[in-house]
Amino acid sequence: MTARLREAAEFDDQDAAITAEVMAAIGREPALYIAGLGVSVDGGRVQLRGFVSFQTDIARTMAIADGVAGVKSVRSELQSA
């Protein structure tokens, strides 16, 4: 395996771990309900999708994601119902 492929595989593994931890962290927040939650990560940059109950839940969800180790930035496409 070339160094470039190893680096790409490490990014994929890191991104998968970040995705799992962001989903788990959001899931541990009992006050949040997000319909159709989608989390994608590319190089530590997190993209959130789905529907929340209240506008204030968007900021809370972004803050939770931002608190996960390895997250470089958070972008939201969350919508309030």
What does this structure look like?
The protein is of the alpha+beta class and 81 residues long. It has one domain: Histidine-containing Protein, Chain: A, CATH 3.30.1340. Helices cover 46% and strands 31% of the residues. It contains 2 helices and 3 strands; from the N terminus they run H-E-E-H-E. A 3-stranded mixed β-sheet has the order 1-2-3. The model has no long low-confidence stretch (mean pLDDT 90).
Structural class per helix/strand content? alpha+beta
Quaternary: single chain
Question: What's the SSE pattern?
Answer: HEEHE
Number of domains: 1
Annotation, overall tally of beta strands = 3
Q: Main sheet: which strands, in order across?
A: 1-2-3
What general form does the structure show? elongated
Largest sheet, in brief, is:
3 strands, mixed
Q: In the CATH hierarchy, what is the class?
A: Alpha Beta
Secondary structure tally, helices: 2
Uncertain stretches of 5 or more adjacent residues: none
Estimate the helix proportion, in percent. Answer: 40-55%
- C-alpha Rg, in Å? 14 Å
Mean of residue pLDDT values: 90
Distance between the termini: 47 Å
CATH architecture label:
2-Layer Sandwich
Strand share of the residues? Answer: 25-35%
The CATH topology is given as: Histidine-containing Protein, Chain: A
